[in-house]
Amino acid sequence: MQSSGIGAIARDVSAWAPNHTAGHQAMCAINKDTAALLVQGADLESAKDTVSIVAKQTTSVTIDAVDSGGASVEIVPANAARIGLHIVNTDTADLFIRYGGTATATSYTVKIAAGADWTMPPTYTYTGSIVGIWGGTPGSGQAVYTEIEA
Predict the structure, then answer these.
(1) Of the four, 23, 51, 83, 104, which is 20 to 30 A from 133 by CA?
(2) pTM of this structure
(3) Which class does domain 60-149 fall in?
Protein backbone atom coordinates (compact mmCIF):
# COMPACT_ATOMS: atom_id res chain seq x y z
CA MET A 1 0.00 0.00 0.00
CA GLN A 2 1.35 3.42 -0.90
CA SER A 3 0.93 6.56 1.15
CA SER A 4 1.54 10.19 0.39
CA GLY A 5 1.08 13.55 2.03
CA ILE A 6 2.42 15.24 5.11
CA GLY A 7 3.11 12.69 7.82
CA ALA A 8 1.31 9.93 5.92
CA ILE A 9 1.36 6.51 7.54
CA ALA A 10 0.07 3.39 5.83
CA ARG A 11 0.03 -0.28 6.70
CA ASP A 12 -0.86 -3.32 4.62
CA VAL A 13 -3.78 -4.79 6.54
CA SER A 14 -4.83 -7.41 4.00
CA ALA A 15 -3.92 -10.22 6.43
CA TRP A 16 -6.39 -8.95 9.06
CA ALA A 17 -9.48 -10.24 7.28
CA PRO A 18 -8.46 -12.50 4.37
CA ASN A 19 -12.08 -13.63 3.74
CA HIS A 20 -13.32 -10.16 2.78
CA THR A 21 -13.76 -9.41 -0.89
CA ALA A 22 -14.06 -6.23 -2.91
CA GLY A 23 -16.96 -4.09 -1.75
CA HIS A 24 -16.87 -5.11 1.91
CA GLN A 25 -16.82 -2.29 4.40
CA ALA A 26 -14.11 -1.84 6.99
CA MET A 27 -13.89 -0.03 10.32
CA CYS A 28 -11.66 3.03 9.96
CA ALA A 29 -10.42 5.56 12.46
CA ILE A 30 -7.90 8.37 12.50
CA ASN A 31 -5.46 8.46 15.39
CA LYS A 32 -5.89 11.94 16.91
CA ASP A 33 -2.24 12.09 18.03
CA THR A 34 -0.49 10.81 14.90
CA ALA A 35 -3.18 11.37 12.22
CA ALA A 36 -2.61 7.78 11.09
CA LEU A 37 -5.50 6.08 9.30
CA LEU A 38 -6.26 2.82 11.08
CA VAL A 39 -8.18 0.22 9.09
CA GLN A 40 -9.57 -2.87 10.77
CA GLY A 41 -11.36 -5.83 9.23
CA ALA A 42 -10.49 -4.96 5.64
CA ASP A 43 -8.88 -6.81 2.78
CA LEU A 44 -7.32 -3.94 0.87
CA GLU A 45 -5.58 -6.29 -1.57
CA SER A 46 -8.43 -5.87 -4.07
CA ALA A 47 -8.51 -2.09 -3.68
CA LYS A 48 -4.71 -1.59 -3.60
CA ASP A 49 -4.03 2.04 -2.76
CA THR A 50 -7.66 3.14 -2.30
CA VAL A 51 -9.46 3.87 0.93
CA SER A 52 -12.70 5.85 0.72
CA ILE A 53 -14.04 7.74 3.70
CA VAL A 54 -17.66 8.88 3.51
CA ALA A 55 -18.96 11.30 6.13
CA LYS A 56 -22.63 11.04 7.08
CA GLN A 57 -24.57 14.27 6.87
CA THR A 58 -27.72 15.10 8.76
CA THR A 59 -29.93 17.98 9.74
CA SER A 60 -31.84 16.07 12.43
CA VAL A 61 -30.74 16.88 15.97
CA THR A 62 -32.48 16.55 19.34
CA ILE A 63 -31.31 18.57 22.35
CA ASP A 64 -32.83 17.82 25.74
CA ALA A 65 -31.93 17.62 29.43
CA VAL A 66 -32.67 15.43 32.44
CA ASP A 67 -32.47 16.80 36.00
CA SER A 68 -29.97 15.18 38.34
CA GLY A 69 -31.17 12.90 41.09
CA GLY A 70 -30.27 10.01 43.36
CA ALA A 71 -32.02 7.23 41.42
CA SER A 72 -31.23 5.60 38.08
CA VAL A 73 -33.17 7.44 35.34
CA GLU A 74 -33.39 7.30 31.58
CA ILE A 75 -31.08 9.98 30.20
CA VAL A 76 -31.62 9.32 26.48
CA PRO A 77 -34.47 7.16 25.11
CA ALA A 78 -33.77 4.41 22.59
CA ASN A 79 -33.57 5.66 19.02
CA ALA A 80 -32.83 3.40 16.04
CA ALA A 81 -31.94 6.47 13.94
CA ARG A 82 -29.16 7.63 16.34
CA ILE A 83 -25.78 8.18 14.66
CA GLY A 84 -24.16 10.36 17.31
CA LEU A 85 -24.54 11.45 20.92
CA HIS A 86 -22.94 14.03 23.22
CA ILE A 87 -23.75 14.36 26.95
CA VAL A 88 -22.74 17.22 29.26
CA ASN A 89 -22.94 16.73 33.04
CA THR A 90 -23.67 20.17 34.53
CA ASP A 91 -24.02 18.80 38.06
CA THR A 92 -21.50 18.96 40.93
CA ALA A 93 -21.64 15.15 41.26
CA ASP A 94 -20.24 12.56 38.83
CA LEU A 95 -22.71 10.99 36.40
CA PHE A 96 -22.54 7.24 35.77
CA ILE A 97 -24.22 6.28 32.49
CA ARG A 98 -25.01 2.81 31.26
CA TYR A 99 -26.23 1.31 28.02
CA GLY A 100 -29.59 -0.17 29.10
CA GLY A 101 -30.52 -1.73 32.43
CA THR A 102 -30.09 0.14 35.71
CA ALA A 103 -27.06 2.37 36.29
CA THR A 104 -25.20 2.32 39.61
CA ALA A 105 -21.85 3.68 40.74
CA THR A 106 -20.45 0.15 40.29
CA SER A 107 -22.38 -0.94 37.18
CA TYR A 108 -21.96 1.62 34.42
CA THR A 109 -20.61 2.08 30.90
CA VAL A 110 -19.05 5.54 31.25
CA LYS A 111 -18.39 7.88 34.18
CA ILE A 112 -18.81 11.56 33.30
CA ALA A 113 -17.09 13.69 35.93
CA ALA A 114 -18.86 16.70 37.45
CA GLY A 115 -18.83 19.53 34.92
CA ALA A 116 -17.41 17.31 32.16
CA ASP A 117 -18.79 15.98 28.88
CA TRP A 118 -18.65 12.77 26.84
CA THR A 119 -19.15 11.93 23.19
CA MET A 120 -20.16 8.45 22.07
CA PRO A 121 -17.26 6.96 20.07
CA PRO A 122 -17.91 7.22 16.32
CA THR A 123 -16.67 3.67 15.70
CA TYR A 124 -19.99 2.29 16.97
CA THR A 125 -23.33 3.73 17.90
CA TYR A 126 -25.49 2.22 20.64
CA THR A 127 -29.15 2.91 19.77
CA GLY A 128 -30.82 1.53 22.90
CA SER A 129 -31.88 3.38 26.04
CA ILE A 130 -29.13 5.15 27.99
CA VAL A 131 -29.68 5.43 31.73
CA GLY A 132 -27.74 7.26 34.41
CA ILE A 133 -27.32 7.98 38.08
CA TRP A 134 -25.41 10.72 39.85
CA GLY A 135 -22.97 9.60 42.55
CA GLY A 136 -22.60 11.19 45.97
CA THR A 137 -25.03 14.02 46.64
CA PRO A 138 -26.38 15.40 43.37
CA GLY A 139 -26.77 19.16 43.13
CA SER A 140 -29.18 20.98 40.88
CA GLY A 141 -27.50 20.16 37.57
CA GLN A 142 -28.59 18.18 34.55
CA ALA A 143 -27.47 15.74 31.92
CA VAL A 144 -27.79 17.85 28.78
CA TYR A 145 -27.62 15.78 25.62
CA THR A 146 -27.42 16.37 21.90
CA GLU A 147 -28.50 13.40 19.80
CA ILE A 148 -27.76 13.29 16.08
CA GLU A 149 -30.06 11.22 13.89
CA ALA A 150 -29.70 9.84 10.39
Answers:
(1) 83
(2) 0.65
(3) mainly beta
